[in-house]
Amino acid sequence: MPKHDDTSTTARSELANRLFFRLYQCANMLHKTGTRAVEAEGLTTQQWAVLGALSRPQAEGGMSVGNLAHYLMVSRQNLAGLISRMERDGRVKTVPDGKDRRSRLVTMTKSGRRVWTNEARPKIDAYYREALDGFSTDDVTHTLHYMLKLLENMRRLDGGEGGAVGVPGEEAAE
């Protein structure tokens, strides 16, 4: 029977604690500094993620509220409030799904697409450059690999729910 090593278990637990605390800090800083990057356009990081998801070629005809929530890994309730604010601001609109009348499709408006393409996206790209200053392409690739691996494990903990593996910014916020 293998000997249980309390030292390595404790060290791994302490490393895990540090890692998850840093992830928490990064998420908070992304929200704070990312929102600051696009606030002149009247956007938050959550709205940036919605517009990014809707800007993908796969979402050209819109996305159902359920699929968008699944993709962004947020609850339908949180997304509903966000979509309402974005509709009020003229960034998105919801329409009945022609294939399933019980479902509603979220699409970007012309105004939302203009804001995304001409105003927000250049600022987001500049934000990415600054936030990744000092990272080589290999650093970014490896970080993404490990983040996706961690995300898959967390999805498994969530019972497989939680959406597509992707991050705002991939393929215009995949």
Quick description:
By secondary structure, the protein is mainly α.
What does this structure look like?
- This protein is mostly helical and 174 residues long.
- The chain has a single domain, classed as Arc Repressor Mutant, subunit A, CATH 1.10.10.
- It contains 6 helices and 3 strands; from the N terminus they run ααβααββαα.
- The protein has helices at 6-38, 45-55, 65-72, 76-88, 110-131, 137-157, and strands at 63-64, 92-96, 104-108.
- A 3-stranded antiparallel sheet has the order 1-3-2.
- A hairpin with a 7-residue loop joins β2 (92-96) and β3 (104-108).
- The longest helix is centred in the N-terminal third of the chain and has 33 residues, at 6-38.
- The radius of gyration is 19 Å and the shape is globular.
- It starts with 5 loop residues before the first helix and ends in a 17-residue tail after the last helix.
- Residues 165-174 have low confidence and may be disordered.
